[in-house]
Structures are given as structure tokens and as C-alpha cells.
Amino acid sequence: MEALLELELMKTAAYYSVSLLALIVFLTIFETVTKYKNWEEIKKGNIAVALATGGKIFGVANIFRHSIEYSDSLLMMLGWGVLGFALLLFSYFIFEFLTPSFKVDEEIARDNRAVGFIAMVISIGLSYVIGASIISR
């Protein structure tokens, strides 16, 4: 396996595959913590859900971009990615906690695009902070 990862093409394919699988798992986790079904709402045209979900996808991908850049092994990359995702998920709960006057999930489910947009910006913005905090080799 180590010999295969020495080839840049195989290394790229491995990092891509693991990142894509992790993204699918993380989106599934996000789906379970929200009160709405992301893909059903997107299919119905709920822009707020699309914005929030797009921000989560971008955020997770950005975290993995940094974890790939600063890791010297596939396992370390996955470890940083999982930690970054956990921090992003924690940030989602903090956002809900810091808005006691309304429920973020309910507003997004109602297609409140302002809340969906802020959720997207929080996910993307904090992914840069999380990514920048990943320690290099």
C-alpha cells in the first residue's frame, strides 16, 4: 500500500476517495441533527436549505483541503478532517444556541433565506478558521 501511495496519481485518488466518502458520512450526520430532510427540501425548491447545505459541503471540503495539505499520511488527513468536522458540527449547535429568539432549523425548514444564508456563511467562514488551525507536519 505504501508503494502505491508513492505514485502521485494513486495518492490523489486515495485522498479524493477518502474525502468524498467522509463528506457523504458527514452530510448524513448533519441530516440526522437537523429537523428537516435536506434533499427532500432541496427537491421542493427550499433555497434556505440549499444555502445551508451548500455551506456545509463547502465547509467540509475546505477543511479536507487543509487536512490534505498539512498531512503526511492518509490516516492523519482523515483524523484532521474528522476533528474539523466535529468543530464545524459544534459550531452549528452554537449558532442554534446563540439565537434564542428563533429556532434555526425551523426557520431554514420554512425557507427563511436570510437564516439559510447566515448558516452558509458561518459554515464557510469557520471552515477557514478550522483549516488554518490545522498544524503542519
Automatic annotation (TrEMBL):
TM helices/strands, residue ranges: 13-34, 74-95, 115-135
Location of the protein in the cell: Cell membrane
Lineage of source species: Bacteria, Bacillati, Bacillota, Bacilli, Bacillales
Location (main, coarse): membrane
One GO CC term, this protein: plasma membrane
Pfam families: DUF350 (PF03994)
Name of the protein described by the UniProt record: DUF350 domain-containing protein
Species assigned in the record: Alkalihalophilus sp. As8PL
Family assignment from sequence similarity: Belongs to the UPF0719 family.
